[in-house]
Design goal:
Layout lengths: L14 H20 L1 H18 L1 H12 L3 H26 L2 E3 L8 E9 L2 E5 L7 H12 L3 E5 L5 H15 L5 E3 L4 H9 L4 E5 L2 H12 L5 E4 L5 E4 L5 H13 L11 E5 H16 L17 H16 L3 E4 L5 E2 L2 E2 L2 E4 L6 H4 L6 E7 L2 H9 L3 E2 L1 E5 L4 H5 L6 E4 L16 E2 L2 E2 L4 H6 L2 E9 L14 H16 L1 H9 L5
Parallel strand pairs: 3-4, 3-6, 4-5, 6-7, 8-9, 8-16, 9-14, 13-14, 16-17
Antiparallel strand pairs: 1-2, 2-20, 7-19, 10-13, 11-12, 15-18
Bound molecules: nicotinamide-adenine-dinucleotide.
Nicotinamide-adenine-dinucleotide binds next to helix 7 and helix 8.
InterPro entries: Ald_DH/histidinol_DH, Ald_DH_C, Ald_DH_N, Aldehyde_DH_dom, Aldehyde_DH_NAD(P)
Keywords: Oxidoreductase
Family: Belongs to the aldehyde dehydrogenase family.
């Protein structure tokens, strides 16, 4: 039995340390905000360079703490740097003050909108992508002018410390971004500390607890939670590409990916070919704890127990293993397991397994695939393989992210937001939405000319009332008719 990871031996912070760091971040916030977008961009670019120069060492810390192979850790870092670069370069364009149009009734006004930082943002992260996931909140919150207190997972505290140490080294700023270490109690203290927003990434169960705690102070929460993502293969798909994506999507990072492929629905016409390719590809992969293979050990013994129970239940309820089986589990080292004929109400199909496993089910047509995918209580990501109908199939399924004829590529495009629906959470990281997530909109009107017939005054008399009635009748009451005439059919 191979045991590889124990909780790292790092002194954890106490709830009073959290209060101290939040106060320090509060003290620094106005100065960081007043620095403006251009100067913050310089600081964030310097931070990016420092992270890049130290990528190898941060990747080693990540591998050491949570078990992913070094090359996967480097891939995670480059993805994070791409998003950091985008946030720094685009914050002003997305959040800066801009003029917006007025209406017929408000022509005498100049209207502007801008997005201002909340203040201090608490970021609570998971261990599975200990750089990529928290950076989606930290980098975007900082670019928007917030200061940050980050609590990494208790499984990856050194990686969290390394990210913040890099910021402090590159910027010379020691109050703008902090790292506090600890478990759920320290996270809870952060939620109660009076921060102005929490950016949370983790399980749906913890998301619920965080929402309950944050409800006490009406603290807003970004909730990036779990998933049970599906990959759908239509009859006209490039089956080899679909099989390759399914295996990587399910097995990379030892399956410990929120957007991992956990279940596959494949059209019966191509199912034999798909299963043959998946079996060949997944069957040649092995997991190891020493970095010698492309799959590392799983991080938490507790999660291995869930994987084992899902596989046991699937096999006991009529499922068959195409690749591996219970023998694939050796302590925390778990080699790929591919299951088929698993009942749709089994934990292996319904609950997040979070290990290197996948279930495959044959479907008669895409209606059946859509129905089965849509039955999930989660709605994070989705992958569809079809040469002609990928978009049409995807449009019938609820999910925050879709990749057609490729796996998870949306997470690599800096302009695209990332986030979930249903039990997978709400709010978005990355792209313009990710910047706005850490800012509140402030609207402003400036009166350019005082109207002779004021709208918002007790001097408003019958003439203004007449004007309002005319607008109601002529502008809004006739809207359907005018639209029909413009569309050329004359009928509303
Ligand atoms: P987790 O929910 O166990 O822990 C996440 C973080 O919450 C940790 O830092 C933990 O210490 C903290 N925490 C625990 N209890 C808390 C409490 N009561 N109050 C405040 N903080 C508390 O999740 P995990 O095991 O670290 O990560 C795996 C989960 O994260 C999976 O479900 C995965 O799908 C999800 N995830 C989602 C995304 C996404 O973008 N949607 C990305 C990565 C991971």
């Amino acid at each position: 039995m191979t045991q590889v990871h124990a909780r790292p031996d790092v002194a954890f912070d106490s709830p009073s340390d959290v209060i101290r760091d939040v106060q320090s971040a509060r003290w620094a916030q106005k100065r960081w905000q007043d620095m403006g977008f251009a100067k913050r961009r310089k600081v964030l670019d310097a931070w990016r360079s420092d992270l890049a120069r130290n990528a190898d060492s941060i990747a080693r810390t990540m591998s050491d703490e949570m078990g992913k192979p070094h090359s996967d850790a480097m891939f995670e870092i480059v993805m994070s740097l791409e998003h950091l670069a985008w946030a720094a370069a685009n914050a002003e364009k997305v959040l800066g003050r801009r003029k917006v149009a007025t209406s017929a009734l408000t022509k005498n006004l100049r209207a502007t909108v801008e997005y201002l930082p909340y203040g201090v943002v608490g970021v609570i992260g998971p261990w599975n992508y200990p750089v990529f996931t928290p950076m989606g909140s930290i980098a975007f919150a900082l670019a928007a002018g917030n200061t940050v207190v980050f609590k990494p997972s208790e499984w990856t505290p050194r990686t969290g410390q390394a990210i913040i140490a890099s910021f402090q080294r590159a910027s010379g700023e020691f109050d703008v971004a902090h790292c506090v270490t600890g478990g759920g109690d320290v996270g809870e203290a952060l939620c109660r500390s009076g921060v102005d927003k929490i950016g949370f990434t983790g399980s749906t169960a913890t998301g619920r607890k965080i929402l309950a705690t944050c409800a006490e102070n009406l603290t807003p929460v970004l909730c990036e939670c779990g998933g049970k993502d599906a990959l759908v293969v239509d009859a006209d798909a490039d089956v080899a590409a679909a099989a390759d994506a399914a295996v990587w999507g399910a097995m990379s990072n030892a399956g410990q990916t929120c957007l991992a492929v956990e279940r596959v629905y494949v059209h019966a016409d191509v199912a034999d070919e798909f299963e043959r390719l998946v079996t060949a590809e997944a069957g040649r992969l092995r997991a190891a704890a020493d970095g010698s293979t492309q799959i590392g050990a799983m991080t938490m013994p507790r999660q291995v127990d869930i994987v084992r129970s899902h596989v046991e239940d699937a096999l006991a309820s009529g499922g068959r293993a195409l690749v591996g089986g219970l023998d694939s589990i050796d302590g925390q080292v778990v080699s790929p397991i591919v299951l088929t004929d698993v009942p749709e109400d089994s934990p292996a199909v319904v609950e997040e397994t979070f290990g290197p496993t996948m279930t495959i089910r044959r479907v008669a047509d895409m209606d059946e695939a859509v129905r089965l995918v849509e039955a999930s209580e989660y709605g994070l990501g989705l992958t569809v393989f079809s040469r002609r109908n990928g978009r049409a199939i995807a449009d019938r399924i609820t999910s925050g992210n879709v990749a057609i004829n490729g796996f998870v590529l949306h997470a690599a495009v800096p302009t695209l937001p990332l986030g979930g629906t249903k039990q997978s959470g709400f709010g978005r990281v990355h792209g313009p939405d990710g910047l706005r997530e850490f800012a509140y909109s402030r609207s402003c009107t400036e009166t350019l000319v005082q109207l002779p017939l004021p709208l918002t005054s007790f001097r408003r008399g019958p003439k203004v009332d007449q004007l309002i009635s005319t607008v109601i009748e002529q502008v809004h009451g006739r809207a359907g008719k005018v639209r029909a005439l413009l569309d050329g059919n004359g009928k509303p």
